[in-house]
């Protein structure tokens, strides 16, 4: 239940189009709706501007169907992360329109066009890091941000990164996705004046410890302005980048 819906409902009461009791009936699910297996935060969009995001891993198909079906009554562009083809097909079976981004493992239910503003650079060290980078990119795009993808520019061939510096300089925020030793976040942080969000990935051989090596490297970055999200958390980075980008856009002087 987003803020536009609430404002519309209050206006209808004011204009006598609906009775207060009927409005109360509509509002009965605030601030959450209990489905038994999930308590849907129907008020979240009014508070944060973004509907609740569904993390699919660990949930059964019927649970995901029930949550998305109920949320779609009030929201568009519902993000479902770590979604499989099975989840996508199950949502289609209940008659809901949805889009599936296979590399990102993200499904967008009840999709609607959204204006994309600003500039977020999503940078990956290697091709193996692209799935996590795509999770960040698709998240940011769904939330209404322009995303510039800059992939496979890791430090083993740093001339590839230096060749796209102009793209980096134009971004309001950079999301840097890297596994192995995770050095790319520090390098980008030393080049740009915008915030850098490091995303360590679990890509790498044994001593990378499933992304812990990259995580510690990014946390210990000597470059200023680098913050770090959890291992493989492309969604978290994309969401945070959206918040930063929107602030930058709103504070930009008119052209």
From TrEMBL:
Pfam families: AIRC (PF00731). InterPro entries: P2CMN_synthase_LarB, PurE_dom. One of its GO terms (molecular function) is hydrolase activity. GO terms for biological process: 'de novo' IMP biosynthetic process. SUPFAM superfamilies: N5-CAIR mutase (phosphoribosylaminoimidazole carboxylase, PurE) (SSF52255). Residues 118-250 form the PurE domain. NCBIfam families: LarB (NF033503). This is Pyridinium-3,5-biscarboxylic acid mononucleotide synthase. It comes from Desulfonema magnum. The lineage of its organism: Bacteria, Pseudomonadati, Thermodesulfobacteriota, Desulfobacteria, Desulfobacterales.
């Amino acid at each position: 239940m987003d803020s536009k819906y609430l404002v519309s409902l209050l206006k209808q009461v004011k204009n006598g189009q609906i009775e207060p009791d009927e409005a109360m009936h509509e509002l009965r699910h605030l601030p959450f709706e209990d489905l038994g297996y999930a308590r849907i935060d129907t008020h979240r969009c009014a508070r944060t501007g973004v509907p609740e995001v569904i993390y699919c891993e660990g949930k059964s198909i019927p649970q995901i169907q029930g949550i998305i079906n109920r949320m779609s009554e009030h929201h568009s562009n519902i993000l479902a992360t770590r979604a499989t083809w099975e989840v996508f097909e199950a949502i289609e079976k209940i008659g809901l329109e949805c889009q599936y981004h296979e590399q990102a493992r993200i499904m967008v239910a009840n999709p609607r066009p959204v204006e994309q503003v600003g500039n977020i650079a999503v940078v990956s060290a290697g091709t193996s890091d692209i799935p996590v980078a795509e999770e960040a990119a698709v998240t940011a795009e769904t939330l209404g941000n322009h995303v510039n993808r800059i992939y496979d520019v890791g430090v083993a061939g740093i001339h590839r990164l230096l060749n796209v510096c102009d793209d980096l300089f134009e971004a309001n925020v950079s999301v840097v996705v890297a596994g192995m030793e995770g050095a790319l976040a520090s390098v980008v942080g030393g080049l740009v004046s915008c915030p850098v969000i490091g995303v360590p990935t679990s890509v790498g051989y044994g001593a990378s410890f499933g992304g812990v090596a990259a995580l510690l490297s990014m946390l210990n970055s000597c470059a200023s302005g680098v913050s770090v999200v959890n291992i493989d958390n492309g969604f978290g980075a994309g969401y945070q980048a959206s918040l930063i980008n929107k602030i930058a856009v709103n504070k930009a002087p008119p052209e």
